[in-house]
Design goal:
Length: 155
């Protein structure tokens, strides 16, 4: 007669596989979620996007009091500055309309130059007010790689 096999003894002697506890799985999932969130927010803030003047006008009330960037060309003869040079007013335009802009601070050196009677494009970052004026907190002048400012006469 053959020896009977003790099944309970065989199962108990097998090495136990390590079991992941629910706490470790939850911890790993939360760390992975945090990393994905940080990568996503980092890439969103690094995206440089701007709206055209017509896009901002089409946004209507949704554009008010939001931080946005607007691209356009400075309207001819629209640049006005305060006596102390701290407030700069001008108008941005594109093919479909214009927006009045107020900027506090010193403008970039290249601001206000015209090439062939046409001002350069600028990007303003700020907020559109309910009165329709765009309050810019930064002003960036766009120019080509071959731009050369006009020469200043010697004194």
């Amino acid at each position: 007669m053959s020896n009977p096999i003790n099944v309970s003894n065989t199962i108990e002697n097998q090495p136990k596989r390590p079991r992941l506890s629910g706490k470790f799985i939850l911890l790993g999932a939360s760390i992975l979620s945090a990393v994905i969130f940080l990568v996503w927010t980092g890439t969103q803030s690094a995206t440089v996007y701007y709206h055209t003047v017509s896009e901002v006008q089409d946004m209507g009330d949704k554009a008010y009091d939001r931080l946005i960037r607007v691209n356009g060309t400075v309207t001819d003869n629209s640049i006005k500055s305060s006596p102390d040079q701290k407030l700069l007013k001008f108008s941005l335009q594109d093919a479909s309309g214009n927006i009045p802009v107020e900027f506090r601070g010193l403008p970039p050196d290249l601001f206000g130059y015209s090439i062939d009677g046409r001002y350069q494009e600028v990007i303003v970052e700020g907020q559109l007010q309910p009165n329709g004026v765009f309050r810019a907190r930064s002003l960036i002048v766009k120019h080509g790689p071959d731009f050369e400012p006009r020469e200043i006469p010697a004194q």
